[in-house]
Amino acid sequence: MGQQLSKRLGPSAKKIAMRSRGDERVSTLIQVAPTMDRLVFQRDVSAHGGDVSSWMPEANIVTVEISARHLSELADLDGVVLVEAGQKYQR
After folding, report:
1. Domain limits at 48?
2. What is the CATH number of the domain that holds 50?
3. Does residue 66 form part of some domain?
4. Residue 19 φ then ψ, to 5°
5. Are 28 and 63 in contact (CB under 8 A)?
6. Domain assignment of residue 43, yes or no
7. Are the C-beta atoms of residues 64 and 74 closer than 8 Å to each other?
8. Where is this region: Disordered (predicted)?
9. What's this model's pTM, rounded to 2 decimal places?
10. What would the pLDDT profile of 40-74 be if each residue is shown by its tens digit?
């Protein structure tokens, strides 16, 4: 049986985490608690090899680029509510 994935992973993020091979990087949308400390979160994301791309404090949404194999760890950080994989816009 595989690794136990975080319950805070949304359906698309969970699928990507289960299927990932190697160091494939993905764009994620993360809902965070309103009390999330921005500097602590950025430090924690960096410790897992990720980069914070944008932060929308009014909506408590953060965009992070990170290796797919670290999605579950990212979801388990304190203050994270939900992690979902970003989808490319298609016409």
Report:
1. 23-85
2. 3.30.70.80
3. yes
4. -95, -5
5. yes
6. yes
7. yes
8. 1-23
9. 0.88
10. 999 999 999 999 999 999 999 999 999 999 999 99
